[in-house]
Every structure is written in structure tokens, then in C-alpha cells.
Amino acid sequence: xxxxxxxxxxxxxxxxxxxxxxxxxxxxxxxxxxxxxxxxxxxxxxxxxxxxxxxxxxxxxxxxxxxxxxxxxxxxxxxxxxxxxxxxxxxxxxxxxxxxxxxxxxxxxxxxxxxxxxxxxxxxxxxxxxxxxxxxxxxxxxxxxxxxxxxxxxxxxxxxxxxxxxxxxxxxxxxxxxxxxxxxxxxxxxxxxxxxxxxxxxxxxxxxxxxxxxxxxxxxxxxxxxxxxxxxxxxxxxxxxxxxxxxx
Length: 248
Known about the structure:
Layout: E1 4-12, E2 15-22, E3 29-35, H1 53-56, H2 75-96, E4 102-104, H3 107-116, H4 120-132, E5 135-137, H5 152-170, E6 176-179, H6 188-195, E7 200-203, H7 208-216, E8 221-225, E9 235-240
Parallel strand pairs: 4-5, 6-7, 7-9
Antiparallel strand pairs: 1-2, 2-3, 8-9
């Protein structure tokens, strides 16, 4: 198994950089730069940022070339290029340090790693981490679906498939629903997740001004019911992530 080290640091107020040092090939590193503000969210902090890679990588040698990558290609190509190292190193680091925790959301990539990459030793370690609650599956669907482009039948189907895999493999079901990437949500959202048996729901992408006002008034947590005509069984406790997101 290729061992790698992850370095996470904030280089500007609005930019976080994730540096993956590939120990098997010290001449190469994988960088992921994340802008913490969306376009037009803030008049100053939303502006484009130029990063001097040589400055960021000071002490690691000279930057000879830069190869830009994106999530293109087939599922298997993306899994081999990105996800394999994530799960390999997550399992390794969780075993090394008992204070660490990790949540996994989408089952499609995890299942590809589990079925085609993970060794018997890694599978045993994952089962141990799941039993200890240090590796936790949230949402648990095949993907993190977007209400804007899917019918609720498809949402139920993909949740059922993902939950079925988790129950058959680990004997568990996710306790919390997690939708931090889709832009917006429908009134069906709280009903679907409440009736699916989730205890609470986490979202992120809402109107910037609304999020700022909710944060100022300490209203980022609320009980969400899609319509006043619905019953209490169709509402769910919801938390909105603040502007800094969920990475820690």
C-alpha cells in the first residue's frame, strides 16, 4: 500500500490548500485548492486568488512542472486516481490514532474501493473502525442526490440501494442525512429524510445573505417541516453549516 501524508493549511483568509505528499514518489505531490467563498458571496473575499506554488511548497524542492487534473473520465478511472488513496490513507491514519474520526457519504466510490481495491486486512480494519464509531457513514446513498434534477422515486431508490449495502456488509444504517453540496433543496427533502429514519439532517448551500443572518442570530439549527399541512413525523432537525464548512 502506498503511504501518503496529508497537510492541510489555510494560506489566505479565503483559500485552503490540501497537500498530498506521495511517499513512494517524493518528486510528486497532489494539491487541491479550495476557495471558501462562492462567486458574489463576498465583495472582497470572493475575488479570484493567484497562488505561488513555489512559495507554498517551500522546503519540498523546486516546482518543475504542473499537471492540472479534474474529475473526468469513467467512475473507475476517477476512483483509481483519487478515491483509492483517500480510503487507503484514512483507514491507515484512523488505526494509528484513536482520537481521529472520519465520515463517508456516498457509497458508489466506497463500494468500488471495497470490492476491487481493499485487502482482507483493510476490510477487517474498516469493520473494526465502524464498530468503534470512528468511521461513520452518513446519508449512505449511492450518491448525494440533488433535488433539482431527480424525482423522489429515484432518490428513494438510490438511498435504498446504498443502505442495503451498508446493512448487508456492516449490519448498520446511517443515522444522519448529509447534503452539503447540492444547491438548494425542495419541500420534499425533510419529508423524505424523516420517513427514511434519519435522526437529523445537515445542509450547507443556501442563500448567502440568509446564511449570514441565521449565523448572526444563532439560528443555524431548526426543525424543518416542508409544509404546514404535514405531520410531525415528516419533519427533521436540521443544521446549516457555517461559512467555514465541515473540514477540520
